[in-house]
Amino acid sequence: MPHYTELNIGPVHPSIHGIFNFKLILNEEIIQDVKVTLGFLHRNAEKLSELNLYADNIIFFDRMNYIDAMNMELCYLMSVEKITGIEPPERAQWIRMIMVELNRLAARLVGMGSLGLDLGMLTPFFHAFKEREKIQRIFTEASGGRQEVNYFSIGGVYQDFTEKIINDIRNFIDQFKKNLEDMYNMFIHSEIFWQRNQGIGIIEPELAFDYGVTGPAIRASGIPYDVRKDAPYLFYDKVNFDIPISHQKDNFGRFMIKVEEMRQSIRIIEQSLDKINDGPFFNPQGKKSLMLRIKGNGEAFSRVESDAGEFGVYVKGDNTTKPYRVHARSPGLRNLSLLPVISKGLMIADFIAVVGGLDPVVGEVDR
Amino acid sequence: MMKTGELGVKTTTLEKALEWGRSNSLWPLTMGLACCAIEMMAMQASDVDISRFGSEIFRNSPRQSDLMIVAGTTNKRMAPRVKRIYEEMPYPKYVIAMGVCVIQGGPYVDGYSVVMGVDKVIPVDVYVPGCPPTPQALTYGIITLQKKIRNETDR
Most buried of A252, A265, B43, B91 (most Cβ within 10 A)? Predict the structure, then answer.
């Protein structure tokens, strides 16, 4: 006769990336079912966006996927720029692209560090955060903010790139290439890391399609789906980069995809730094004195490839200075909804590794 | 104390000695709720090394820790849990409210779901403003708390 135990993990738990509640139904140590409870960080960002001006809403998107703030801002502003008709100039697009890719590196570093922490490896955390601190120094130089940057504005960016920032980014990239390989080797040469990650959390391609999974999770299932390639925004069609895929379908494949994408991000940044041109960095229609009077009409949906996957923002305007409705499509929620399916038959320790590999960010899941 | 070779003797009260020891070995609880949690991790990492001030051991169990850094927005669903975890901590215990969300609601002050300040739920010793505060600001908050602990019997 089977004997079942219930085990609560969360909401405050050191190794579940944010505040979720997982109720595991266990048969001895084998997981039979997982019940995910959300809503511990519901901050009503969508409702508050309806009460604030277009330019003010950027801060709520910064704080959605808080480790990948630039991508969140970019997605909201792409929608707003569609309905207000304020196009950013070319230099602003290049600046945005460099910053977005830098932030992708920073977000992946947090993911790598905390995956190591989950699996009992303390050293990668310190290496990852040391590198991340250098990126945040560049952000501070450009925007004044470390993590929640608030750097992009409607029709451009708030401050221009100076020579110092460009030099800083070049210096950072030069030394980061080696440090990334060091960090990667630290993971890969650890036998325990292989044993803990291989063959767990297998996502079949059909399952990924059914649940709307995006990001590294779907690319690790062998499907080369990336918004940057399939529906290019900014100038992603003008730079060369590859979309890595893996046929391993498991947690280890997802880790390898993330590292390979960091190498591709470095390629994108290097090409962008060469191609960046002189010119205005904001559209005069969206300058600071006019920013509070920007009106939007119509509806728009835009999507970007964020750290966790495809992030989309829907904005509807009714010809006033405030949006009528704002909605965000969160990739983390889709990835989390797959968790009960892929974690059947795993051990508790493997479950922690699967959650770490999926990288859900609670601010974006609960909004 | 000067290095003169003589045996240094300092007289103090037991309370003072206890406070001195307590203030230099604060063990924080990993109470990362939102964005500020990443900056709290950055404070623990090598750039702003909090272990210089004796607080490097982040404990995951409330029963082993004496400082709760509430890092991140507390909403109405989370507030009872925060209170319960605070009550599970042994005395003496201290609370640092990190970030404007925890102090008074922050950017979400107009909303319906966020608790307007965690001090409505649990007593707070030190407030660290910022959205999110830099690791340096949080370090300053911990130093302020240490000063407060050292002067507890004087008040």
Answer: B43
